[in-house]
Task: structure prediction
Amino acid sequence: MAKSKYTLPKFKFYKPQKLERTAKRIEQETDKRLTATGVSKNRYERTLGHLRENRNLRQRHYKILAYYLSSLKEDYPKLYNLFISKAQDFFSGPGRYYYHLKALLSSYYQEFKDKELYNLINLVIKNNNKWKSEMEFVKNLLYKSNNANEFFFKIVSKVNDCRSLTDIEELKSKLLMNNNNNLLKQSLSYYWLQILDNGVRNINNDLCIQIIKDYIPLEKKKKLFEKVLLDNKDINNFDSIGNIFERWLKLIGNTLGGPYGSNSAKWANIDQEARDLFKRWKAHKNIIVTFGEISGDQRRLDFWKQYSDYFYRVEYFEKYDQAILMESSNHIFIEFAGGGALYMYNKDYLTIQNLIDKECGYSNTKMVSEVLKDTQEEECTERLEHRDNYRGYKKWEPRFFDRFSTHGYVKKSSRKK
Result:
């Protein structure tokens, strides 16, 4: 009989207890990697195959699937129910379920209205026999909750105590939450919308702004923005609106953009008066930027600020000879940052959106000469030069004031209080 060339290991060194300890260490290291890096989609798909074939699931399979329960429930509701059934059997006895619990919580924070998932988490808490200090906070919170609804409002109560972004980050850490989950969004939204609804003009801090940006759902943001705008709809002087309202307007603009063109879809269901106020503010800001920062012309800046509340849209087109277009209800006013005459047209001839839509059919030179400076067009109601000592006026501004008044535009300083 031929002698094997392979040397067998010395089995006396492989004691059962040592093997068990080694297996536990490997399991723990696997747990740590799963917690730190998440579970890859490939591992999830492979494990999903075991569940789909109704095979026996091992300990690691439950952890992997537990991270993806939100997707599993949405994509494969029957497999989700099968997982819950199998998991109830798996967690029915004592065991080391610490990392399973973290995975289940990760999914529960997305599906926090799921009573079966909540009950499964409580079963795990009941039978887990190895705890770490970082789990104490959420474990005690769950112990004190009789149902999922109570657990939600206990978290809302904790949110109420947060006074800074740091407090929120610490709360998330205690709850073992990631940055993007439905439970945190709902609890923050529930609390802060109540505060904001009671006095939106009194909210002026970084915490409020950050929560609105990151946690309030878009449709609720829009209702809140509408309320802020309508509460201030009678404002005409945007130079003295104060820092609080200015911050709100900037937040609204950063969130929804301007209510023009294709972007206006984001403003759907927002009251027209609210939209108009935002448009007037945006026009005023653009007048300051174009005539103040781009053109550097203080006289024209001071002049146009007298009429800024007539405009709903102001845009700058550098490629068209630095054209500045200002749109009111009935007219389009065209200035040029580098100087030159003012052109005024009826809106039947041109709007800012028309200009944007026409861009592809005109060269830059043709757009300026045939559209923006077309004095032959019968819709050109005024062409006015910024010349002092001209036609009986020492300054050009009074001449412009008089011409504008014939079209129904009255400067702010001449209006009745």
